[in-house]
Amino acid sequence: MAIRVVRLGSDRSPGEGLRIGTVRRPPRGVRRKDTSIRNFYDVWFPVLAPSAVAVKAARDAETERDWARFVRTYRAEMGKPEARATMDLLAARERGALMAGGRR
User: Fold this and answer.
1) Cα-Cα-Cα-Cα dihedral of 91, 32, 75, 17, to 10°?
2) Residues 55-62: contacts with CB within 8 Å, 24+ apart?
């Protein structure tokens, strides 16, 4: 399962698939039914939200280099055991969803 970190509202790539919203709070002023239409996310999953420090880095990112620094920080956070276990569960679910009846 390939994972990409993208900005909320950025254009989707062809064949991108499910966009999981790993934000602590949904965007203000955006109705839940519009989060997918506006390219924010398809499913809100705050369990994998970046830390407050990482969020600040993302908000302050003005250059591609700044954004790359945020991505590195966030990926490091996702390497911690709790986050890793959650992503493993999502990956297992994705593999199971591709098989008939969800059996492996």
Assistant:
1) 50
2) 55/24, 58/7
